Amino acid sequence: MNGRYSGSSLEAEGLDATVLIIDDDDDILLSARLFLKQQVKQVITCKSPKEINVLLSKNEVDIILLDMNYQKGASDGREGLYWLEHILSIDKDYVVILMTAFGNVELAVKAIKKGATDFILKPWENEKLFATISAASKLRASTRKVKKLEKIHTSLHKDMTRGFEHIVGEADGIKQLQNTLLKVAPTDANVLILGENGTGKQVFAYEIHGNSQRKNQVFMHVDLGSLNENLFESELFGYAKGAFTDAKEDKPGRFELADGGTIFLDEIGNLTLPLQAKLLSVLQNRTVIRLGESKERKVNVRLITATNMPLNEMVAKNTFRQDLLFRINTVELLLPPLRKRGTDILLLANHFMQVFSSKYHKEIRSLNHKAEAVLLNYKWPGNVRELQHVLERAVIMSDGNEISEEDLQLSPQRFTQTTAMPDEMALGDMEKMMVQKAIDKHKGNISKAAAELGLTRAALYRRIEKFGI
Questions:
Q1: 298, 287 in Cβ contact below 8 A?
Q2: Distance (Å) of CA 335 to CA 47, 296, 307, 324
Q3: Per-residue pLDDT tens digits for 276-326
Q4: Contact 122/28 with Cβ under 8 angstroms?
Q5: Within 13 A of 431's CA, how many CA atoms are on the CB side?
Q6: Sign of the CA dihedral with 192 first, then 214, 301, and 187 last
Q7: Using CA of residue 281, residue 282, residue 287, residue 289, what is the dihedral sign?
Q8: For the chain, what is the HEC assignment?
Q9: Contact 250, 239 (CB under 8 A)
Q10: Could you report the per-residue pLDDT of 324-368, keeping only the tens digit for each?
Q11: Cis ω before 123 (30° cut-off from 0)
């Protein structure tokens, strides 16, 4: 070799892994590289362990083959153990396989105790080397998956255990909901959360879980409104290998993943009657059957559901199962629209102002009086979500240390359109009007209309079909 280390990045048919080989013997490096480049994604070779820091900082290494002796005549393996400890001090999850030409059981045991994954003798048999690399690759992939899940769970748990930090408001209706939440959360009662788009249904679901006995377990959010009907069973209940064309391995569904914790089924009013029947069966039996299997698997989940649709009216029209409604609404929470929360509008506005001022590194301290008046007089068809977006934009646009009415960009036309909407209008009619207005405003651009309404494209398409727009 011309340099101290070299890389070979050939497309491999074997393992999706990058292997770093460290050995002072050129023949060993050449032999290992020629064999492994056909078996793995990438092979990096290096003659000196002093290059380890540079190589690990520049490459996403999965497996490290580390020789144990580098000084001429050395055979005690002390150098290898030193560099093993050094590698694991960088990241304890590195997979390190030690290599030596001197068979020593005590040394091998010592190396394993210090964190080595395996130990192989030189010269090796290629089949043995590949088997060792293959097992190490699977271990590395499993470790990464577990770490990723742990990070997700830690992040969710941190968010879940902050009391009522996420629920901002002092209106009587909000205080009553908080009192109800404190009574319901410690139980396993099923909760149905109702309210217009953007009223905070997901926030309340988080708070129920965060104040429950399951707060240290998984909170699984499933947006049924964006879930393709053909994927409903495989996503929620899982599937077995070979159940369909792309089912290359067994996969648990959302209910299994949420076992012991809480599952939040958002936009449940969008389910068709056949899917409602399948969900009801799972809720009644507390078991799931993966696609392609006949085995029942028990699940222990706390159920929270939410919708902006009038389920009682849908039951009367036979578009929602009454027995499913009975099953999901042991306790029902009806979230008030923002236009009915009075001065909570200013509390929320100031809360969002502080959040976004910090995010965008600005020193905005207040809303001026005209801006407050504008916020209080606007009817907020998009509710808290719309207010949040308005304040984020205002913080970005503001040049001073206070937000003005110009920064809010709430035009008189928007007031006129919104105030014409009667509060007593049926929820379905109101939703249809909002969808039609958004589509008209953006001249049929579904992506922009969906963004304004706080919906996914799939959810908006369902509403267009539902209302015959």
A1: yes
A2: 66, 37, 11, 21
A3: 999 999 999 999 999 888 888 899 999 999 999 999 999 999 999 999 999
A4: yes
A5: 23
A6: negative
A7: positive
A8: CCCCEEEECCCCCCEEEEEEEECCCHHHHHHHHHHHCCCEEEEEEECCHHHHHHHHHHCCCCEEEEECCCCCCCCCCHHHHHHHHHHHHHCCCCEEEEEECCCCHHHHHHHHHCCCCEEEECCCCHHHHHHHHHHHHHHHHHHHHHHHHHHHHHHHHHHHCCCCCCCCCCCHHHHHHHHHHHHHCCCCCCEEEECCCCCCHHHHHHHHHHCCCCCCCCEEEEEHHHCCHHHHHHHHHEECCCCCCCCCCCEECHHHHCCCCEEEEECHHHCCHHHHHHHHHHHHHCEEECECCCCEEECCCEEEEEECCCHHHHHHCCCCCHHHHHHHCCEEEECCCHHHCCCHHHHHHHHHHHHHHHHCCCCCCEECHHHHHHHHHCCCCCHHHHHHHHHHHHHHHCCCCEECHHHHCCCHHHHHHHHCCCCCCCHHHHHHHHHHHHHHHCCCCHHHHHHHHCCCHHHHHHHHHHHCC
A9: yes
A10: 999 999 999 999 999 999 999 999 999 999 999 998 999 998 999
A11: yes
Greater confidence (442 vs 207) lies with 207
* Amino acid letter, 455: L
Helix pair angle (126-160, 201-210), 10° resolution: 100
Q: How far is CA 83 from the centre of its chain?
A: 37
Distance CA 192, CA 265 (A): 10
**Could you tell me if 305 and 268 are in contact, meaning their C-beta atoms sit under 8 angstroms apart?**
yes
Rounded to an integer, what distance in angstroms lies between the CA atom of residue 383 and that of residue 246? 41
Q: How far apart are alpha carbons 49 and 183 in whole angstroms?
A: 61
Residue carrying the six token digits 């003659």: 47
Contact indicator for 251, 259 with CB cutoff of 8 Å: no
Contact between 440 and 448 (Cβ < 8 Å): no
- What confidence tens digit (pLDDT) does each residue in 263-279 have? 999 999 999 999 999 99
Could you read off the pLDDT of 109-137 as tens digits, one per residue?
Answer: 788 888 888 888 888 888 888 888 888 88
Between CA 216 and CA 223, with CA 220 as vertex, the angle to 5 degrees is 155
Q: Answer whether 428's CB lies under 8 Å from 310's CB.
A: yes
The answer for residues whose C-beta is within 8 angstroms of residue 436's C-beta and 6 or more apart is: 467, 469
Name residues whose C-beta falls within 8 Å of residue 237's C-beta, 6 or more positions apart in sequence.
Answer: 253, 255, 256, 282, 288, 289, 290, 291
Question: What do you get for the CA distance between the two ends of the chain, in Å?
Answer: 70
Q: How far apart are CA 283 and CA 301, in angstroms?
A: 9
Structure-block tokens of residue 103? 């068979």
